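User: Structure tokens for both sequences below?

Assistant:
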Amino acid sequence: MKEKNLHPKNKFNKGYDFDALIKINPKLKPFVAKSQFDVITIDFSNPEAVKELNKALLFSYDKISIWDFPKQNLCPPIPGRLDYIHYLNDLISSEEKITVLDIGTGATCIYPLLGVAEYNWNFVASDIDFESLDTAQDIIDDNKLREQIELRQQSDENNILKGILKDGDSFSAVMCNPPFFKSAEEAQGANKRKNKNLGNNTIRNFSGNNNELWYVGGEKAFLHNYLYESSLYKTQSTWFTSLVSKKENIKSLEKSSAKLGAVEFKVIPMSQGNKVTRIACWRF
């Protein structure tokens, strides 16, 4: 199955070799079968199948051999997450030594893992949830990546960069995959719609802790809070970036960035199959 519209450097842009992936992760084998269209694939409505597939994709990197996390945490789709890393590299590749700050890294620590595996970057990664950070630290330790990935806990849910950035920190970029629902109820409603479309009753494939899925005021409120705080630390990162799922949030973000003194604002379009998103990037 070929993934459409992925970054040219994305190693999964020509589809999946399931025979090779089963060798990498034998636990994937029971989930691989021919579809009704005579195509070798997995049932993407099955959360266990999705998790074992993404493990296989991640383990295709020499630096990563262990990756496990609780069922209540979101399982990130590796190809799409890798695209953010590649587009970020297009933005900052001219810098000699690259260190990236990942806001809201989650239990899977996926962006730091991919950034280290693909480009050998260094990372500081933050999250508000202690249990997620505890799981992420286990993954870092199991893969012997402690020297390249440092975790920091955000103790105040009202802050994004405050309390995380320290004097002397200097980053090539800040990256973020923000929560986009306004409430737990809105997130649960979206889960039900997705499950109905897939024709099944499972919720785990679209599960997630509150901090992964929703933020008071939704994506727009989060982005504007992040933008404002970035103006307070404008010299500590060359670029500030974020995924933006709702296109209508871009215009107000760009307008506010200009008011806060940003000297450049750009939008990088990004798509995977039918899903269209974008990366907003600004610098001071």
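Moving on to the next sequence.
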Amino acid sequence: MIGRLRGLVAEIGEDEAMIDVAGVGYVVRCGARTLSRLPAAGEEALLHVETQWGEQTGMTLYGFLTRDERRTFLALKAIQGVGPKAALAVLDVLPPAELAQAVARQDKALVARAQGVGPKLALRIVVELKDKPLTAGPAAFAPIDMGSPAAAAAPSAAGEAVAALMSLGVAEVNARRVIDQAVMRLGEDAEIAVLIKAGLQELGR
């Protein structure tokens, strides 16, 4: 089973990317959000992969930029009525941390924003994901006191780095793009200052 791929981006299509690993091209199905955050063709990418088998389709690889996204994909797929396409659609509109918050609030309307996910399926998702960890952080599903700002989840290093770039006048979409690329290169444990520096260097190219 393939669990991770590190290689050069060979092609990016509408719903998949080809990653060249030592001369072998792996076709990996990805959500739109993941595809939009991949580096340009010819640059290195790291994808966390879920390998699935089907009698008619054979082996299919699903790719994610973080372990949390892969973990959330599996949690969504375990829900009756949620196939790979719907799971990717949910992740397109709600990254794992935001989905965890929506589940904690039982906000089915937010989940229903995903393409192909109706109100009934959205309700099933928020009910069945309750108490299931979607992120590696502690207390991902702790009850939220909406009246207390201190109760909000602590921002991630990547989130703070994005906010720092935005405070310098960088558009949010560009800030997220360069910080996501920095996280892919430096790892999810990289410090905020390191991510900011890498993001600024990417913007300066």
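User: Anything stand out in the second?

Assistant: The chain has three domains: 4-64, 68-148, 157-200.
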